[in-house]
Design brief:
alpha+beta; two-stranded antiparallel sheet; two-stranded antiparallel ribbon; 3 helices; structural constituent of ribosome; ribosomal protein
């Protein structure tokens, strides 16, 4: 199982562990991932995803999973989240771009 967030694509980073004597050894900084069950209002079902705690805050801030996925860029999402986004867009209908009068 990969250590990657399914909504924000956060993954492991590499850096140095620095000792008291300033010796640097390689280490990995792993993302804080949680298994979370989201409720999709548009699809009418529960969705289990493995997301970072930062993404969990973003989903709450945007008003739920449906709103977050509709705003999210497709290149950041995992294939599973991208399928959910397409299903939500199909169910809700993609909002038309608003033209400004000049």
């Amino acid at each position: 199982m990969s250590r990657r967030c399914e909504l924000t694509a956060k993954g492991p980073q590499v850096g140095h562990k620095v000792s008291h004597s300033n010796i640097k050894t390689k280490r990995r900084f792993l993302p804080n991932l949680c298994n979370v069950t989201f409720i999709s209002d548009a699809l009418g079902r529960n969705v289990r995803l493995r997301v970072s705690t930062n993404a969990l805050k973003s989903v709450d801030h945007n008003g739920g999973l449906d709103a977050y996925l509709l705003k999210a860029k497709a290149d950041v999402l995992s294939p599973r989240a991208l399928d959910l986004k397409r299903a939500i867009e199909k169910k809700v209908g993609k909002p038309a771009p608003v033209k400004q009068a000049s």
